[in-house]
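Lecture notes, part 5. Sequence design as translation. It can be helpful to think of inverse folding as translation between two languages: the language of shapes and the language of residues. The source text, in structure tokens, appears below.
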């Protein structure tokens, strides 16, 4: 039905940058909010950033001023530009999207498989 595929993760040194991408595909009627969450080993999953269909954004306190979320509605894609990366940013980053399918007019939250981001000191 619906699939979210993340890309762009990798290994970078502290102070470096990465851009993550997440593309939604399938029987999509509409997409409301899209966002990024992350989970480090031994820790709970936490909010990184969310962007609404209208472009409003919300960031986790730990990434404000360093990360930027954006979206391309024509491509059903959300991006996360990560600058000034720190070792503390090391985690699996998961894409999330609230999607209404063509067969059911109800919002359902979908998740991607995750992409690893590792920041070395």
């Amino acid at each position: 039905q619906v699939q979210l595929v993340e890309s762009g993760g990798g290994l970078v040194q502290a102070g470096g940058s990465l851009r993550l991408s997440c593309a939604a595909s399938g029987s999509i009627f509409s997409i409301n909010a899209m966002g990024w969450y992350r989970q480090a080993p031994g820790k709970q999953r936490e909010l990184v950033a969310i962007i609404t269909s209208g472009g409003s954004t919300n960031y986790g306190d730990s990434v404000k001023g360093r990360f930027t979320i954006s979206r391309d509605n024509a491509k059903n894609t959300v991006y996360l530009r990560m600058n000034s990366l720190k070792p503390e940013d090391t985690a699996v980053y998961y894409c999330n999207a609230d999607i209404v399918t063509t067969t059911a007019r109800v919002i359902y939250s979908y998740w991607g498989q995750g992409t690893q981001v590792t920041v070395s000191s």
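The translated text above is only one of many valid answers, since several sequences can fold into similar shapes. The two ends are 41 Å apart (CA to CA).
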